Amino acid sequence: MNDTGSRRWLALVFIGLAQLMIVLDITIVNIALPSLQSDLDISDANRQWVITGYTLAFGGLLFLGGRIADYTGRKRAFLVSLVGFAGASALGGAAGSFELLLAARVLQGMFGALLAPSALSLIAVTFTEARERAKAFGIFGGIAAGGGAIGLLIGGLLTEYLDWRWCLYVNIPVALIAAVGGYALLNGDRPEGRARFDVPGTLLVSGGLVAIVYGCSRAEEDGWSSAAVLGLLIGGAVLLAAFLAVESRVSQPLLPLRVLRNRTRGGAYLAVALAVIGMFGAFLFVTYYLQVVKGYSPVKTGVAFLPMMTAVLVGAGGISARLLPKVPPRALIVPGMLIAACGMVWMTTLEVGSGYAEGVMTAQILLGFGMGLIMPVAVNYATHGVAPEDAGVASASVNTAQQVGGSIGTALLNTLATSATADYLASHPHSPAFAKAGMVEGFTSASAWAAGIIAVGAVIVGIVMNTPRPSHARADDSIPAPAQVA
Fold it and tell me: What InterPro entries would the database entry show (predicted)?
């Protein structure tokens, strides 16, 4: 491999490290939540905001982050967001109150919304040869699919052996290492000319996404039929419809509609949004099942997710990366979604007395393997056919699909689970044994819904995606050939 090629792959290490940090932060705090809630005296009603504050800012500002990366240069956006993320993590780790911790989590989400699309678009413009691009996106997709499970493992270790604050402090060295490596290896790519920001589009899409994600988070407590939840969901939908109308008319849109019109890109976004419903649901249900029903410690719970991580790596690195340059995208995504759906079907067999190997582990392997097939292909084709100046916003679209899909899916499945649990307990005597059985009943009921959603999504993606088998030339003729590294 020549020197330029070696530096390209070394740059991918630091880009992947940044992406891992983003994905970790979605789940690493979950296991620490009971400890930090007690330490900072956070009420049960407010504890969800430690998670939701991050996801609201992240999901609501991703399109803006993608456009900033396109307008100011991806390397600059990458480095600034890494330093900002490290600072926000330091603030959160040192927080002595709920209010300061919440502010830090929101800041993390804001910088993450800039970091995620700049990282993915850097890969899109750096790796242009078909086989190299497939390998790069295989690695990146594996991180996107398995990072959440890694977060649960690391969160358990840090919480049990150090302190919950280290779930935030751990980001500081990771971000700084990625920033130093990125500064040394990535070329500046500031676009020629200056573009105006689409202020109306920014306000509409951010407001719409925040309203929908917030509405879904409120549904966990208030119910889907409450006036507040319905108002937020309907209002968010109206704002997003207005956003699309505005984008079709302005000269320099935040999200050029040409990015969404391509059937393969649209199918990639849809696959991610629906597939993460199963993954986020599994994180939620398995974590509570193992800790509450089976009595696992935080560390043991984290270790119990290792089979999922291994299956993701096998699917992403062993299969997707090899077949991605050779087969149509739906030939990997559709089977991946069906396998992931089978994993959620397996979750419906869980009982209070189920053993780990025949219950949780098998479901995790199926789900992880399916996600390993889906994510590398989806993140690759998320930027399929886009012009270089649109790479950031196309990357933001797939990140938005993942974040919003995960948030909506978690709220939806949690509501279905709690409803099924309440129905079960209403018809059974009150006792600890029946309480655990009721919890498992909720998990299995919601898992059945998740399986159905993913399976229906597989059919839709199979119909929508129409890109044929890739050529053996370059992966995307719209991406310039020179690599964006020194």
Answer: EmrB-like (IPR004638), MFS (IPR011701), MFS_dom (IPR020846), MFS_trans_sf (IPR036259)
Q: In the structure encoding, which two tokens stand for residue 457, read together?
A: 């999504």
pLDDT in tens, 198-207: 778 878 887 8
In this prediction, residues 110-115 reach a mean pLDDT of: 90
Q: Are 384 and 134 contacting, i.e. CB atoms less than 8 angstroms apart? A: no
Tell whether domain 3-197+254-464 is in CATH 3.40.605.10: no
pTM of structure: 0.76
From CA 438, how far away is CA 75, in angstroms rounded?
50
Characterise 223 by phi-psi region: left (phi > 0), alpha (psi -120 to 50), beta (else). left
- The burial of 126, by beta-carbon neighbours within 10 Å (0-12 exposed, 13-18 middle, 19 or more buried), is given as buried
From the list 466, 481, 468, 59, the residue with the least C-alpha distance to 265 is 466
In contact, 30 and 287? CB cutoff 8 Å: yes
In tens, the pLDDT along 385-421 reads: 777 667 767 777 777 787 777 777 777 787 788 888 8
